Amino acid sequence: MSFSTRRGSTLSLISYNSRRIERKMATTDSTREQTNDGPNDQLSPLANQLSFPGKLPAEIIQHIASYLSATDLVCLGATCRTLADHASDDLLWANLVNKRLPTPIRTPGAFGSFRRLYLAYHPYWFIPQHKIWFADNENTGMLIIARYDDRRGVIEGHTVVAERGTPQFQMWTSHPEVIIQSFEPNVHLSLGGPILSLRDPDPSSRTAPIQIYYSTEERHMSMASDAQNIYNSLSVCAEFSLRVPWVDPSLLWPPPTIPANAHTVRALRIPPPAILNHMSELSETLFRLRRWATPELMLPQVCVTFSTLDPVLYTPTTEKPYQGIWVGDYSTHGCEFLLVLQKETTVTAHGDENESQVTDAQDEVEQDNQEDIGQRGPLQAVKLTGDHNVPRGQLSFVAEDIGPRGLIGVGMEEPFVGARIVRCRGHVAGLGFRDDTYIDSQLILISPDHMAHYWKEMGHVSYYRRVDIDALLHSS
């Protein structure tokens, strides 16, 4: 049973028993003794007016409260004084904060309590929780890492960038005409300041700004560009139903090439579409950043939509060793980031007559060498960042099967000795993504962290390296 189901059942039982007790108490003598309960000699509620949850042992109340969301915890605290004391327990709020962070923190830092810290950045805690976000900037896109800095008490998002470094020319003995340049990229967070910045104006205050004024529309981000009269704001998004038949997929984010449970309409007009009417509609996998300037600067407004990636998509496994976020060498376009998806191979059957075929296929899979368990099925590379030829969100290359059906051979010459070489198709296009097409190529699987792509028609080999996400999260 899930936490939410267990919580709902428990609260329903409490509500039912509470009504039974209140009806029973209503039949007894209405006169009750009032007791002194508080430092200011304030009278506690009459005994027959105490809710049933308030009469439970403290340990049970705390256990129930530990399953509640922040919103439900506030509602619980508004019930009565006893439950208000339980709902304000800072251990509960510390748990709510740490559920949203990749690495738990022990103290609220500059804030007086974890409750005050949580309220400072509600409802934006999902941004550091999901860490990796990619944007719909036209053609180029953008990849950022979002983190909570407990030393400074701020949430920031920095652009992920990569420098190619000084390449060294390599020789492929059997293909001396092919141009090969080494690729040892330096992947790091941009030092030019955050693209996203949330900070509390006064952490020492007992009251968070959200307790004074709150809007579901936008939150201004105080940044260095304010001094140049260039301003930035953050807004949340609502999910968009994909059941609507008339929507052009190019108007939605994330793109169809990247699996996602939630989509939204891209902000292609200014102001962006106001599709969030209530906080219950908020999607925790999407948000927008807007930048504008004072009229005298004559700068256009820019609104960018961000989506996160499900960790399942970029976490390598034994069965999917190549899955993850990679950086590739795209020659004059520079370094670009890709999401490599290793699809599952499935065997389908129709009717009882094919059941034996399915069983035989499963037996063959079980007999495969354990070392080759990840060397099968289709592999796709989707651009998280792109260029003016093949933009972000498009496929960069596709290998229909990296298993036996697509295997060309194993490299016998430097620099690809021992590498698995499979059939592939590379995606090319003219400027503005015109006349796009796929051309035959070869994918060279050097290791789970290192690949090469032989563009046969171009006589060129591009290298790809896996991006170490954990290193970026912990970089200073």
TrEMBL record:
GO biological processes: protein ubiquitination
Domain F-box: 50-96
Region feature (Disordered): 25-46
Name of this chain's protein: F-box domain-containing protein
Pathway: Protein modification; protein ubiquitination
Lineage: Eukaryota, Fungi, Dikarya, Ascomycota, Pezizomycotina
Claim: ATP-binding is one of the keywords in the record: no
InterPro entries (alphabetical): F-box-like_dom_sf, F-box_dom, FBXO31/39
Biased composition (Basic and acidic residues): 25-35
Keywords: Ubl conjugation pathway
Compositional bias of kind Polar residues: 36-46
Pfam families (UniProt xref): Cyclin_D1_bind, F-box-like
Species the sequence originates in: Penicillium polonicum
Keyword Aminoacyl-tRNA synthetase: no
